[in-house]
Amino acid sequence: MSRSQQLFERAQQYIPGGVNSPVRAFRSVGGTPRFFAVGTGARVTDADGRSYLDYVGSWGPLILGHAHPAVIAAVQQAAANGLSFGAPTESEVEMAELLCSLLPSLEMVRLVSSGTEATMSAIRLARGFTGRDLLIKFEGCYHGHSDSLLVKAGSGLLTLGNPSSGGVPADVARHTLVLDYNDSGQLEAAFAEHGAAIAAVIVEAVAGNMNLIAPRSGFLQTMRELCSRHGAVLIFDEVMTGFRVGPRGAQGLYDMTPDLTTLGKVIGGGMPVGAFGGRREIMASIAPLGPVYQAGTLSGNPVAVAAGLATLKLLQADGFYDALAQGARSLTEGLVAVARKHGVPFSAQSIGGMFGLYFRAQCPQTYAEVMESDQPAFRRFFHAMLDTGHYFAPSAFEAGFVSAAHSTADIAATVAAADAVFSNW
Ligand SMILES: *Cc1c(COP(=O)(O)O)cnc(C)c1O
């Protein structure tokens, strides 16, 4: 029995499903999750000493690869000065200044410890600011696991949502309306019917939690226009896309100005940091300035912030994002070429340092299309690649990530491994 198997058996005795976050359990691909021991650059080593090229990157944060020396040094130095104070520190001010200078839509920002906290707080803020309750989200977008967001569409197009998780009160879910991503017509209908009650629209401007789906032209602009016209707060959830799809996130890529933005993942560089920020007028509703309560014992934690700051500073290097995007593009173009050579129905695309792989002929544009992809084919691909030392996300519905540590040779090796896998398809 492998060491990962042994650890997984032990884990299941005391941790539900053996994991501290469900997708790690490999349920959708089958088999035993790999327990990791060491990460360096683009590679991870599992508990059995096997090495893998890592295309998960801790689900997005590790844009510089594992254990970047400058990030580790910053963490060590911060840790030596004390792990937490529960009082303000200089590094938080520096982080807030940097985030507001990098994202023009941010006039003020508050730090939290996870993406879930950031979106949950941004929604409460939007509701408090507007004095309205109704929230619009899109099927297939994930915004963390707070009650208002674990909601699926009701029975009719504009009927209010139902809980998508046990433990979420139906009374909470009915304040969320779930629409189809990339469907501007539905948005228009929703605002026509409920406009005066809508507190906020929350969206992943590039959707990365139903594999990768790009916004259709006009979708984000329609959303912006409707929110402005009806006095609703537009929240871009950039927990994944922030500083990942480009230097200004998805809002920079599509030239959009949301009212609020949520951040996480990359801004912590592998440590727990989230943030929400935006228009000063809205942010002024947060306690202690305003009536909307939000707090955190470890918010702005100096060790976590040190990792985030060190990461964000390295992203400012000239040409960083061009090189990152080039890496992701050569991966997806290479995989598409070898799939085509062997007649495998497969498509792929990248946006900045994110990519999507789909076992279907064309890249999907909607949740329904992504759900039509061939899941058994993905499972085969996943395990075949894992066996050759390539760690992709263990689900057909997750985006992948390339880091700055992935070399041209790493990506070529991955494409060559896929070539071999597809040749026996
Ligand atoms: C990961 C993610 C979250 C949740 O962040 P956590 O840190 O896991 O709580 C929220 N929104 C998006 C878009 C994400 O990708």
Approximate shape: globular
Ends apart, CA distance between termini: 28 Å
Summed up, the helix count is 14
The averaged pLDDT comes out at 97
Spatial order of the strands in the main sheet? 4-12-11-10-9-5-8
Q: What would you report as the Rg, rounded to the nearest angstrom?
A: 21 Å
Q: What is the string of SSEs from the N terminus onward? A: HEEEHHEHEEEHEHEHEHEEHHHEEHHEEH
Please name the CATH topology of the domain at 70-314: Aspartate Aminotransferase, domain 2
Q: Quick one: CATH superfamily of the domain at 70-314?
A: Type I PLP-dependent aspartate aminotransferase-like (Major domain)
Query: What small ligands are held by the chains?
Result: pyridoxal-5'-phosphate
Low-pLDDT stretches are: none
Which architecture of the domain at 70-314 would the CATH scheme give at its second level?
Answer: 3-Layer(aba) Sandwich
